[in-house]
Amino acid sequence: MAKKAKSARPKARLPKGLRDVGADEFRAVEGMVGAIGRVSEKYGFEPLETPAFEYSDALGKFLPDADRPNAGVFSLEDDDGQWMSLRYDLTAPLARYVAANYDALTKPFRRYQTGVVWRNEKPGPGRYREFRQFDADTVGTASVAADAELCMLASEALETIGIDTGNYIIRVNNRKLLDAVLQQAGIDPQDEAEQIKRLTVLRAIDKLERLGPQAVELLLGPGRKDASGDVTKGAGLEAKQIDLIMGFVGAGSDGRTKTLAALAPLVEQNEAGREGLQELAQMDELLSAAGFDATRVVIDPAIVRGLDYYTGPVFEAELTFESVGEDGADRQFGSVGGGGRYDGLVERFKGVKVPATGYSFGLSRLYAALSELGRADVGSLVGPVIVLVMDRDHIGTYQRFAMDLRQAGLRSEMYLGESGMRAQMKYADKRGAPCVVIQGEEERSRGEVTIKDLVEGTRLSGEIEDNTEWREGGRAQIAVPEAKLVEAVREVLARQQT
Amino acid sequence: MAKKAKSARPKARLPKGLRDVGADEFRAVEGMVGAIGRVSEKYGFEPLETPAFEYSDALGKFLPDADRPNAGVFSLEDDDGQWMSLRYDLTAPLARYVAANYDALTKPFRRYQTGVVWRNEKPGPGRYREFRQFDADTVGTASVAADAELCMLASEALETIGIDTGNYIIRVNNRKLLDAVLQQAGIDPQDEAEQIKRLTVLRAIDKLERLGPQAVELLLGPGRKDASGDVTKGAGLEAKQIDLIMGFVGAGSDGRTKTLAALAPLVEQNEAGREGLQELAQMDELLSAAGFDATRVVIDPAIVRGLDYYTGPVFEAELTFESVGEDGADRQFGSVGGGGRYDGLVERFKGVKVPATGYSFGLSRLYAALSELGRADVGSLVGPVIVLVMDRDHIGTYQRFAMDLRQAGLRSEMYLGESGMRAQMKYADKRGAPCVVIQGEEERSRGEVTIKDLVEGTRLSGEIEDNTEWREGGRAQIAVPEAKLVEAVREVLARQQT
Fold first, then answer.
1. Were A413 and a residue from B44, B58, B233, B413 both cysteine, which residue would form a disulfide, CB within 3.0 to 4.6 Å?
2. Could you tell me if A285 lies within 8 Å of chain B, comparing CB atoms?
3. Below-70 pLDDT ranges, chain A
């Protein structure tokens, strides 16, 4: 087989759901990650990095909608036969890290992490099998002050990267309220046998924003056939149960206090409900004290978050400006991240409760959002100043020009290809070069260099036809003594900024 | 099995050869990557990101010392039965990228990339199965100006991150010279049947620095038994052949011109040798023109680089300062990266020659080097200012204090745990907090906050015993009106800087 592979040419292609990320997106995402990282550090979090894959049993299986074993993750076998999986989020590795280093850690342990995660799921438009996340988590405290703080962090992070108040909203709920409503509806959330029904109900609620209330009612009841004819099995609830749940998820209001007052009568009959209400009230108090009012953080009883491991407050950051959907219709941009409290994840390893809460941003979604807002290009690179190679015998001189410019902090390169003048100019154009540096025989004899302003040049003429025309370009080019090269290039760049 | 996994507790551990990276190393590496990225951009390179894994046949197999198929890489099977592998370097993905996007790319194509790579090899001390690299490559030109520029980039990158001239050296060689010497010794480098002998010779030379000339002579000849009793098979050359090769690899000299002059008579009899010499001479000219003399870049005929795909100039960055090895003995720090020309990698896909050259830094090695030089901690975070929670009924006020400090750009957090005063002070100490903010009943009644300087406090007392003692701490703590909190904390921080 090795022989055959050697003779046959491999095809240059990527597996489905994987993609390359070009310079603009890379730099924009780096900029976002840097900014969100600095905000996280300001909030007291410390960075941590964990490996891309770990033992499969250590990562566990908490992906939504993944009923088959091993569905959703990429797994590989180690030499000794043990199975390892690529991380599908940054929370499972954190739980492993905390459990492995529990005694040495200062608690509450507050860490942020950014990295790529992998999901072995069906890719679709804008939906990849590899994507980058940014997480912040606080481990080792049951206080919802930690949850409130993550909502503040999420809010400040979004504003720092250019998504202003009004263009986003952080929605907060509490799984305890959802459990209370389920109990009111006669579904015991603790009962093992009821787990599938409970999950079906939570998933149905999770689809409220996307599909609307009628579809959710069907998903809570007999099930639903979508436009393509696919049938989703329902939770099989009765009308009375459905009414109760729909009444709850629809009870949100503009103010946090008003929402809490509307929810209270629906859930305060049982203990989980009272606990959940009290936790949300405390979060409301802390958010208000820190200056985060309902224009930034609201309470929304319809927020579920897909992941199975949440046990208390859950939150979601949603972008609220209009954008054009794949079908050409206006739509809301939707979720760019979220999180919640997961008091059981570290317990899996330790056997004792280690309360924790975390927040996760999807960076590709955030980049898409910034692009829609026209703010993704702030990090775009200006092309390099290209030193043309007019005469290969003097390549050392051209190299020195490029290095002089670099030493002055200017982005620059000597043309490294082997083509002639016209191709070199085309290269400079394609690279977005602000100007080129030219020294032909004539300039050399005078100890000069010519700087050709490509921005001004394009404006003046359009197409450059030949050498003579260049030299007569007037304003678009200037000749200066070699020693004035850096200064003259600086002037050209400055003129282009104005 | 799913049932069983649920009941048994997983063990919190990592597979061999994988590790977590803590805050200090993470920040230091981020700082390095940022700095090297900016230097690369200044040199005209653009960032690119490719996925962590690709089709195995697209990545190919070019690892050194990996004779078994699939040895060295981690592979996983896609749903449709196709094999994919985690990238083992950043060059193979680049070749796939260039081949897949060839017509759309502006050539020469100059990209930098940083990312984690994986090698399924036996881990050892300081040798992991996951590590991070930084690469810069120029694709689409045969001009050794591109190779010379990569040596300049490597040199400037090292100096930018704090490794000064004299603490490192870039060593350059040319595979064509090595081929010429092999030919002189009667081994045809083009002959398929001689490939194993050729590789054995190259690997032997590659070990010159580590094992010394005597060991290399054995590896070129009958083979060698090391201290542990392991036997490495030799290339089986005769004494005359060995002399020829040892004469060549030992012909290096201080100056580049002198080295070239010493090498010329050994290789100029054949065409590869003449080409190789001429290429090195041109690199020397360009390096000199750009101001990179032999204190930064030398020519060294013993440089091989392990990877199989190099076809022309090869380079290696070596740190030259003394450090203490694992055995406690002084040693040179050694290689932190390298690269070379690989004119055949894109050809694998395209069937036409696409000349290319690249440079790669090992970032973990660089971090270790900076640590040895005492320069790795420049990015260390100062601990956050901790707002103590003296009275849970006033948690909103404490939260506001923390937020006021953050809004002033100061790193701060309210204590999020549920422990008492002493534990909170211990937490602040462990987090490296510069100071804590305290408001008990007394301060509140006066509308004041107390700021306790932990740096000064530690200096003055050592151990804090009780509340009363704090309040009498004198210089180590000050009480100010609430409105002066930010200002007063700023003053404490400023005093600590001096």
1. B44
2. yes
3. 1-7, 62-70, 307, 324-331, 378-379, 459-475
A420 and A343 in a common domain: no
Nearest chain B residue to A433 by CA distance is: B44
For position B431, which CATH number holds? 3.40.50.800
Domain stops at, among B349, B378, B407:
B378
Same domain, B124 and B270: yes
Confidence band for B5, pLDDT divided at 50, 70 and 90? very low
Distance from CA of B330 to the nearest CA of A (A): 31
Same domain? A393 vs A369: no
Residue A102 domain-assigned? Answer: yes
Cα–Cα distance, A494 to A497 (Å, whole number): 5
Q: What is the pLDDT of residue A300?
A: 96
So what's the pLDDT on residue A444? 96
Distance from the Cα of A224 to chain B's closest Cα (Å) equals 29
Contact A15 B116 (CB under 8 A): no
Q: Decide if B394 is inside a domain.
A: yes
Segment 149-208 of chain B within 8 Å of chain A by CB: 149, 152, 156
- Name the residue with higher pLDDT: A470 or B498: B498
Residue contact B10–A118, C-beta within 8 A: no
User: Are A41 and A170 members of one domain?
Assistant: yes
Query: ipTM of the predicted structure?
Result: 0.89
| Segment 411-470 of chain B within 8 Å of chain A by CB | 411-414, 416-418, 427, 430-431
Contacts A414 to B, Cβ<8 Å:
145, 149
- The answer to whether the CB atoms of A286 and B395 lie below 8 A apart is yes
Residues B486 and B411 in one domain: yes
Task: For residue A349, give the nearest of A74, A48, A102 by alpha carbon.
Answer: A102
pLDDT > 70 fraction of chain A, expressed in percent and rounded? 91
Counting one residue from chain A and one from chain B, the pairs whose CB atoms sit within 8 A come to 274
Q: Does one domain contain both A191 and A264? A: yes
Task: Assess if residue B289 is contained within a domain.
Answer: yes
* Residues B253 and B388 occupy one common structural domain: no
Taking the Cβ of residue A107 and every Cβ of chain B, the question of whether any pair is shorter than 8 Å is answered with: yes
In a domain, B273, yes or no: yes
A197 in the same domain as A253: yes
pLDDT in tens, B206-224: 999 889 999 999 999 999 9
Q: Give the minimum alpha-carbon distance from B241 to chain A in angstroms, rounded to a whole number.
A: 31
CB contact under 8 A, A416 and B348: no
Check CB contact under 8 Å for B381 and A19. no
The domain in which residue A412 lies consists of: 382-497
Rounded to an integer, the average pLDDT of B297-305 is 95
Instruction: Mark B74-84 as b/e (b = at least 16 C-beta within 10 Å).
Output: bebebeeeeeb
Please state, for a pLDDT cut of 70, what percent of chain B lies above it: 91
Computed over every residue of chain A, the mean pLDDT equals 90
Report the CATH number that the domain containing residue A28 is assigned in CATH. Answer: 3.30.930.10
Number of domains in chain B: 2
CB-nearest to A52 from B46, B130, B409 is B130
Contacts of B396 in chain A (CB under 8 A): 285-286, 288-289
Q: How many Å lie between the alpha carbon of A289 and the closest alpha carbon of chain B?
A: 5
pTM comes to: 0.90
